[in-house]
Write a structure and sequence with these properties.
The protein has helices at residues 39-54, 62-69, 81-101, 105-108, 156-173, 185-191, 198-215, 231-241, 259-268, 282-290, 306-311, 322-326, and strands spanning 4-12, 15-25, 30-36, 116-122, 178-181, 220-224, 248-250, 273-275, 296-297, 318-320, 339-340, 343-345, 366-372. The radius of gyration is 21 Å and the shape is globular. Strand 4 (116-122), helix 5 (156-173) and strand 5 (178-181) form a beta-alpha-beta unit. The mean pLDDT is 91. It has 374 residues and is α/β, with parallel strands linked by helices.
């Protein structure tokens, strides 16, 4: 048996958007899970709804636990705090499975399909994921002010606003072969995304021109649209992007579960469509693909999704924010994925291969909540 006897959540007031979950068992193992956005809401679900169920359960019964946590009456089949809580628990259970058996998670899933996984850099800055909600500067959707100073060499959102071509050269120099930018967001803020003027369209296209002019086709470009646009505006933007042969336009319309609108969009542009980090669950994605709404699926598995990418041969990229990896995130965990020439290398340590550093729990801004069996 491997009985869960303790559930612990950890969040940091200076990085309030991320929540870590630790499951301890009676055999002395600790499984680590992670999720983000609405960390306090997820924390409340774990302690107020799921904790009493999880305590005393055999952590080896991953499928049974997952089915119970994802019942339609918990989360209502949406990308809710309940679903994010269940996902963090699931990650921690797989971490326990790997540690218990002395194998990496990808091996527990059935083995690796590759030795390396390509990554792309989401061109955010140092504050990405450090805010408490999508409404403040801790999110990549924040509006960059004219003349805003870079806080360091990896303040990539300011960099792509100033000169995306120079940024592309910087990424290529470090081995990155793909990058994601979102220069259209600022224009949606002006009118709610209902339309885009030709002036704004021309300005939004400029970074893509600069990248191609600077490095040609040496780097893949993704355009993040953050579910900000109406269908007519999204069609206009995606058509304007066609000459730059971007890899995908991500979350182009306000309602990414609107299959009919996405079908219309795909019929009007050759720009591939990617979605969506606003959706959750295998059933939802299967239905969207069956209805010919998407070219690529963006499955948001938190940062611990690296192992699934090694296991699944259909995985194309692992997302990363180099500013975070180079600074504050490496101060929180014991190990980071090793990247060589724009690709994560296959890890070999048991489980996820990383843990929270002990000093994280000693920080003055740490908020730790724990429940245990009597």
């Amino acid at each position: 048996m491997s009985i869960i006897n303790k559930i612990r959540t950890i969040r940091l007031e200076k990085i309030p958007n991320i929540l870590w979950v630790e499951l301890e068992t009676d055999e002395g193992l600790i499984g680590l899970g992670e999720t983000y956005r609405g960390a306090q809401a997820v924390e409340g679900v774990l302690h107020g709804e799921m904790g009493s169920y999880l305590l005393g359960k055999d952590s080896r019964q991953i499928e049974a636990i997952s089915r119970t946590l994802m019942t339609p009456y918990i989360g209502y089949h949406s990308a809710s705090a309940e679903v994010r809580a269940a996902s963090a628990v699931d990650i921690a259970l797989w971490d326990l499975f790997g540690k218990r058996n002395g194998i990496p998670v990808y091996e527990a899933l059935g083995g690796a399909a590759r030795e390396q996984v390509p990554v792309y850099n989401t061109c955010a800055g140092y504050s990405f994921n450090t805010g408490s909600s999508v409404y403040n500067s801790g999110n990549s959707r924040r509006i960059i002010q004219a003349g805003e100073a870079m806080q360091g060499p990896y303040d990539d959102q300011i960099a792509f606003t100033e000169d995306a071509g120079i940024l592309a050269k910087s990424l290529l120099k470090e081995g990155y072969q793909a990058m994601k930018i979102w220069p259209f967001d600022t224009f949606a803020a002006h009118n709610g995304g209902g339309m885009i003027s030709q002036k704004d369209l021309k300005q939004g296209i400029e970074p893509f021109y600069k990248i191609r002019d600077a490095v040609g086709d040496s780097i893949e470009i993704m355009c993040e649209l953050h579910s900000l646009w109406s269908l007519p505006a999204a069609i206009t933007i995606c058509q304007a992007l066609e000459p730059y042969h971007i890899f995908w336009a991500e979350d182009p319309i306000c309602k990414m579960d609107d299959s009919r609108a996405l079908q219309i969009l795909r019929s009007q542009t050759s720009t591939p469509i990617c979605g969506s980090e606003t959706l959750a669950g295998a059933v939802t994605f299967r239905q969207m693909l069956e209805q010919n709404t998407l070219d690529y699926v963006m499955a948001d598995l938190s940062w611990s999704g690296v192992h699934l990418a090694f296991h699944a041969s259909s995985a194309l990229f692992q997302e990363v924010v180099r500013a975070n990896m180079a600074t504050w995130y490496q101060e929180l965990v014991t190990e980071l994925p090793v990247m060589t020439n724009g690709k994560f290398q296959k890890p070999f340590a048991p489980g996820l291969g990383t843990s929270l550093r002990p000093e994280v729990k000693e920080r003055g801004d740490a908020v730790i909540k724990e429940i245990r069996t009597n």
